[in-house]
């Protein structure tokens, strides 16, 4: 299914990011929201055949709100200019590695996966797993098909080695990371014809990496 209503709405909210406009165009927002949620449901149904950890998940627990948290931001625009969904065991706030779709016109859309900013306990477990068994992770992320889609694993990182690890550790660059994510960018042309099957093909490549992280933190 196409996401034309969602894309058109996001183009408009970028130009009219205020509550008055949103109130006047509530029906357009609702139509876009319903369309994106329907896409999330179709994608989730297909992904449950790939990742059984997603079984029983409600699409509504995967889609992010459009309202921005402006409490600590200089930018007081009340709304995001994107729609996002995160498919993960336990939903978007479950704290597990998962799969993310970011829809934002202006060639800013992407498919992504991994684990973003895990808490200190989970991060310590992931680093321990990398210390003990980096070979398994490297086998996944160094695969030709994986690199073609995502390049390298990325995320904010420390400047120095984390406590307990030597600066000359053979996997120090991985150990320095505080998030472990991969991104596949999508052009506006691609998002106009995006399909659940396309997302599944990309997310399927991410699944072994997510399994690695989820085993580490469980």
Task: Give a verbal description of the structure.
- The protein has 218 residues and is an alpha+beta fold.
- It has one domain (4-217).
- It contains eight helices and four strands; from the N terminus they run H-H-H-E-E-E-H-H-H-E-H-H.
- The chain has helices at 4-15, 19-24, 26-47, 120-141, 144-150, 172-176, 188-192, 196-217, and strands at 83-87, 98-103, 109-115, 180-186.
- It has a four-stranded antiparallel sheet.
- Helix 1 (4-15) packs across helix 3, helix 3 (26-47) packs across helix 8 and helix 4 packs across helix 8.
- The two termini are 35 Å apart.
- The relative contact order is 0.15.
- The mean pLDDT is 96.
In short:
The chain is of the alpha+beta class. The protein is built from eight helices and four strands; from the N terminus they run H-H-H-E-E-E-H-H-H-E-H-H. Helix content is 46%, strand content 11%.
Proportion of strand residues: 5-15%
Runs in which pLDDT lies below 50 for 5 or more consecutive residues are: none
Rg of Cα set: 19 Å
Helix count from the secondary structure assignment: 8
How many structural domains are formed by the residues? 1
Structural class: alpha+beta
How much helix, percentage-wise, in residues?
40-55%
Mean of all residue-level pLDDT scores = 96
Outline the biggest β-sheet. Answer: 4 strands, antiparallel
> What is the CA–CA distance across the termini?
35 Å
Overall shape? globular
Quantity of strands, as a count: 4
Protein name: TIGR02453 family protein
Pfam families: DUF2461
């Amino acid at each position: 299914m196409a996401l034309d209503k969602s894309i058109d709405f996001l183009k408009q909210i970028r130009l009219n990011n205020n509550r008055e406009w949103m109130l006047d165009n509530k029906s357009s927002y609702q139509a876009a929201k319903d369309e994106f949620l329907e896409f999330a449901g179709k994608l989730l149904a297909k992904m449950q055949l790939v990742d059984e950890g997603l079984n029983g998940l409600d699409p509504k627990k995967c889609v992010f709100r459009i309202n921005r948290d402006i409490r600590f931001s200089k930018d007081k625009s009340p709304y995001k200019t994107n729609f996002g969904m995160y498919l993960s065991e336990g939903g978007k706030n479950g704290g597990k590695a998962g799969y993310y779709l970011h829809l934002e016109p202006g060639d800013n859309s992407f498919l992504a996966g991994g684990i973003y900013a895990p808490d200190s306990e989970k991060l310590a477990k992931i680093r321990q797993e990398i210390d003990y068994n980096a070979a398994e992770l490297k086998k996944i992320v160094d695969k030709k098909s994986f690199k073609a889609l995502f390049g390298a694993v990325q995320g904010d990182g420390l400047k120095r080695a984390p406590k307990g690890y030597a600066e000359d550790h053979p996997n120090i660059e991985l150990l320095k990371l505080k998030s472990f994510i991969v991104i596949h960018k999508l052009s506006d042309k691609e998002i106009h014809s995006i399909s659940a099957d396309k997302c599944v093909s990309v997310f399927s490549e991410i699944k072994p990496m997510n399994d690695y992280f989820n085993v580490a933190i469980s």
